[in-house]
Amino acid sequence: MAKIDESNPLKHTIAHAKEYGFIFPSSEIYDGLSATYDYGQNGVQLKNNIKEYWWKAMVQMNENIVGIDAAIFMHPTTWKASGHVDAFNDPLIDNKDSKKRYRADTLIEEAIAKIESKIEKEAEKAFKRFGDSFDREQFLTTNQRVVDYKKKIDATNARLKKATEEKDFADVKALIEELEIACPVSGSRNWTDVRQFNLMFSTELGASAEGANTIYLRPETAQGIFVNFLNVQKSGRMKLPFGIAQIGKAFRNEIIARQFIFRMREFEQMEMQFFVKPGEELEWYEQWKQTRLKWHKNLGIAEENYRFHDHLNLAHYANAACDIEFNFPIGFKELEGIHSRTDFDLKSHEEHSGKKLHYFDSDDNESYVPYVIETSIGLDRMFLAVLSSSYTDETLEDGSERTVLKIPYALAPIKVGVLPLINKDGLPEKAREIMDKLKFDFQAQYEAKDSIGKRYRRHDAIGTPYCITVDHQTLEDDTVTLRNRDTMLQERISIPELKRQIEDRVSINNLLRQL
Ligand code: ATP
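That is the input. Now the predicted structure with adenosine-5'-triphosphate docked in place:
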């Protein structure tokens, strides 16, 4: 694996993403726009493949889940009803010396994570001391230092929760001071007061009088689903439990936006709202937790990269919530949220719109507002998870080096490279013939320029699972070599066999069958 540069753990990924056409800074010729990125020719393919894997796993594989595509602009009252106008705020704090701005709650959470890692270090030390007879559980509950650390974590969590709920920002600041949190840039503890900052972008609709028609760029896709709940239920004759899925852009004026595509101001979400009978929500919540984790692990990315993080500080709408966290180069962070949102949203839309959003349950002959389980994953974060975990630097047996993106085959931007060994002797024409057949089934790429070794390296660097090489033998017996990205082994295959052989290995259906 590539060595991680402590000062910027994402450096390799960012440089590689740019060099190989995955991600460019937005409007780069004008020096870019912070926390906004464009996907390049390979990036868009990878992104589309992730979408396809999610969409098919949700909509195509489940008879009781359907999809929609709602508008980004919504009636402004939507955001009053959802709570975003009043409560979609982050507490921010500035360091007076570095002039850097931070989310106050994130600073505290990072301080808690540091204490957690101290516990882990104590456990590792003890394990070294006691060896196989080490009882981790017992150690964690009885070692005085660990017990004290845990007490501190619990007390800090409880205080942060209370202060956030009660909007007691003086206490949030007091916590930062008591935890002796210093600015990572200036190293000083010279902080401003904590202030509230609404994350929604607003704009004006039409040529209306100033301020009269403020609308928002949606900060999440979920509300487009809630307001369409009855439209979909009635037109699709859906019976509970059923889900509505959506992939689309969301916008947040994030305070901290220094982590590449992990935290963007314009990003994409893949969300699914699953409507259930009240009282059954926690069972469904558990089930969706497992279903979603399985979807992730099914990609074959090392299992230890995933973990659940249960929320202690529940959002105003939730009665249970957790994140699936991924081990990004910047540490374990939220990749997907799974929330039991109760009937908060539908009820609130009923109140604000004056329209009934009840479901008539013909089995029980009663009418009620359904409860909702939501699974919400950031497409860009998923992209970052795939890209960063697949980046590998290898030293080969002959001492040479290669960079290879070990992207799960089904997600790879280009599935197959078609390469004439040399650019003459009738080999390019034969390779073109193969390309023209395969392009109906796969995203294929024809490449004749440079030595074959260089072309293999280029395909390794963008994660192409297979390269077909057309050589002189091809002209004699209609066979080609098929080279695998990971093993670099080449097998000889007859041209009519190619489609089946490649399809068997790179198809998204393989992933779906294993779910
Ligand atoms: P965070 O705590 O990291 O700000 P969140 O809890 O606000 O995230 P949700 O509102 O639960 O996030 O959004 C669902 C998903 O959308 C997240 O799990 C994440 O993958 C993605 N997401 C949220 N904000 C951003 C962002 N600014 N850039 C990229 N993806 C995002």
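The first strand starts at residue 23 and ends at 25.
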